[in-house]
């Protein structure tokens, strides 16, 4: 029963997190999706390409393009030409984006603290360890699926 419930609980938690964070960021004109894009760019290192960022975030490129267009319109990020590949653009937080992400992170941290209230560090560590193992399994399944698809098409 627990194994059947697992994916639904994870999806429900993810939806709830997005909804609550969207509410907290609304007055700043940023959604959870835009915040997570900025965080991934910040943590992934300045100057990543769109393709690298899409892989890092595990989202499709067209979805990322819309997010980046919005962030660029808000002057939070900028796309710069890539010296090694003229077709590619490197993504950078603007100075405004750098200072803005601190404000966004403070709000996200406040929500995170509320959601993790009464959860011990040990419980959280166990949860994250289990999630990492599940993600490793998902990566393995994804690779096997891709290999199976390519061998069937080749």
Automatic annotation (TrEMBL):
SUPFAM superfamilies per UniProt: Winged helix' DNA-binding domain
Domain HTH marR-type residues, every copy: 3-136
Gene Ontology process terms (BP): response to stress
MF terms in GO: DNA binding; DNA-binding transcription factor activity
Entry-linked Gene3D superfamilies: Winged helix-like DNA-binding domain superfamily/Winged helix DNA-binding domain
Keyword Oxidoreductase: no
UniProt keyword terms in alphabetical order: DNA-binding, Transcription, Transcription regulation
Family matches, as InterPro entries: HTH_MarR-typ, MarR/SlyA-like, WH-like_DNA-bd_sf, WH_DNA-bd_sf
Record carries keyword Calcium: no
Protein's recorded name: MarR family transcriptional regulator for hemolysin
Organism of provenance: Halospina denitrificans
